[in-house]
Amino acid sequence: GIQVEQSPPDLILQEGANSTLRCNFSDSVNNLQWFHQNPWGQLINLFYIPSGTKQNGRLSATTVATERYSLLYISSSQTTDSGVYFCAVERGFGNEKLTFGTGTRLTIIP
Amino acid sequence: GAVVSQHPSWVICKSGTSVKIECRSLDFQATTMFWYRQFPKQSLMLMATSNEGSKATYEQGVEKDKFLINHASLTLSTLTVTSAHPEDSSFYICSARSPGIGANVLTFGAGSRLTVL
């Protein structure tokens, strides 16, 4: 099956800092999503981004499908940004399964 | 936006009992739902794909007799952990695809934390 690796596995930053999270995948994909899992376990969909660049407030994401990677940028970090960030990919359209990456645990220190 | 509700949020049960977890799509119909399992500090692993009106499709290594999935309507899928043991303790999360333009986007329930004593 498709392999999804994320880096770094852990990241500790001071409030206000910027960060870049990376997601590498081993095969062509038609679906890529970034999620934030909060301390209570809820997964929040951040971006649906199989290709191109999107921005939403302090967050932005870029997927270079031909090179099989995606980046999530977080600017001016806040303590509420803490949690685990997952990317998840799917090869086909429709009802194929979404494979999750290994995750990046982000801790923002006040 | 699309909302997926999961119940219960957490459950504690004795070893040997069965536990049912419900996953509902609140404002849309979902012919397919997905059940994931997450151990502490690990990623999500797909357990099975729940199909309305037909049998679920289980991932390799997942015991179908242990984890019973029923998708009886277009808004409800249930996961029953039968004869639960402590090693079944985990965080179970369901998801569904929202319809329309965002059909490739999966929305997740809040998860159910199971502790088997």
Distance between the termini of chain B: 37 Å
Class by helix and strand content of chain A? Answer: mainly beta
The arrangement of helices and strands of chain A along the chain is EEEEEEEEEEE
What is the residue-averaged pLDDT of chain A? 94
Describe the protein in words:
- In chain A, 0% of the residues lie in helices and 56% in strands.
- With 110 residues, chain A is mostly beta strands.
- The mean pLDDT of chain A is 94.
- With 117 residues, chain B is an all-beta fold.
- In chain B, the strands form 2 sheets. In chain B, strands 2, 4, 5, 6, 9, 10 and 11 form a 7-stranded mixed sheet that branches. Chain B has a 4-stranded antiparallel sheet with strand order 1-3-8-7, with no helix packed on it.
- In chain B, strand 9 and strand 10 form a beta hairpin.
- The mean pLDDT of chain B is 91.
Topology of helices and strands:
The complex is a heterodimer of chains A (110) and B (117).
Chain A: E1 4-7, E2 10-14, E3 19-25, E4 31-37, E5 43-48, E6 52-56, E7 59-64, E8 69-74, E9 83-90, E10 99-100, E11 104-109
Parallel strand pairs in A: 2-11
Antiparallel strand pairs in A: 1-3, 3-8, 4-5, 4-9, 6-7, 7-8, 9-10, 9-11
Chain B: E1 4-7, E2 10-13, E3 19-25, E4 32-38, E5 44-51, E6 57-58, E7 67-73, E8 76-81, E9 90-97, E10 106-108, E11 112-116
Parallel strand pairs in B: 2-11
Antiparallel strand pairs in B: 1-3, 3-8, 4-5, 4-9, 5-6, 7-8, 9-10, 9-11
What are the key terms here?
heterodimer; A: 110 residues; mainly beta; six-stranded mixed sheet; 11 strands; 56% strand; B: mainly beta; four-stranded antiparallel sheet; 52% strand
Write a concise synopsis of the structure shown.
Chain A has 110 residues and is mainly β.
